Amino acid sequence: MREVEGSLRRLQTDYLDLYQVHGWIATRPWKRPCEHSTTWCGTGKCANIGLSNLMSWQAATAVMLQERLGLEKYVTAQMYYSLVGREVEYEFQSFAEYHHIGILVWSPLAGGFLAGKYSRNNPAPAGTRFAEAGQFVPFDKEKGYGIVDALKGVAQRHDASPAV
Q1: CA angle 62, 65, 69 (to 5 degrees)
Q2: Nearest 5°: phi and psi at 47?
Q3: Digitized pLDDT (tens) for each residue of the chain, 164 residues in all
Q4: Is-contact 137 110, C-beta < 8 A?
Q5: What does 47-70 look like in DSSP terms, one character per residue?
Q6: What number of CA atoms fall less than 13 Å from residue 113's CA on the CB side?
Q7: DSSP assignment, residue 123?
Q8: With the C-alpha atoms ordered 30, 32, 33, 35, is the resulting torsion angle positive or negative?
């Protein structure tokens, strides 16, 4: 609740449109974040709640708890998704559709990799986020270079950059 209050203060508002619960802590019961989220919505501190970066089984556990305990339901799932990271399509998308949970995408350019700046012959230079932080979104780099090559071809035909 302290963090929600801090966000409200920094944003200079009375409520949040959306509060995203990030991550899964294996050593703590998921019931607590579900209950807290319901409390925030019940007091008018936030209008909607969402989850972020959970595997399907984790999200299913959370939704089951929400249903069983009559708690506020997640309306969004913030998930990594890009042309080199399409795993969300395999299982999570159908889960989200079934439970009427919208998907919010983060890092659609795979940390800048898909912007076309990097290639096999021109890797990320030292000092850039991609080089320094490492590959914070996992994908097969060799396959990724093939995708970037295809993006560059499409972009060139449309007089655009690969990121557009």
Answers
A1: 145
A2: -85, -35
A3: 788 889 899 999 998 899 888 877 666 666 666 666 767 777 888 899 999 988 899 899 889 988 998 888 999 999 999 999 999 999 899 999 999 999 999 999 988 889 988 888 888 888 877 777 666 777 888 899 999 999 999 999 999 999 88
A4: yes
A5: EEEEEES--HHHHHHHHHHHHHHT
A6: 28
A7: P
A8: positive
> Which residue do the tokens 């209950």 mark?
35
Residue entry with tokens 């093939």 = 146
Tell me how far apart the alpha carbons of residues 104 and 75 are, in angstroms, rounded to a whole number. Answer: 10
The Cα 161–Cα 121 span in angstroms is 19
pLDDT of residue 27: 65
Please tell me the distance from the alpha carbon of residue 38 to that of residue 46, in angstroms, as a whole number. Answer: 9
- The residue with tokens 């209008």 is 47
Q: What span, in angstroms and rounded, lies between the C-alpha atoms of 93 and 101?
A: 9
Nearest to 149 by CA among 70, 84, 52, 105: 84
Q: What is the pLDDT of residue 32?
A: 66
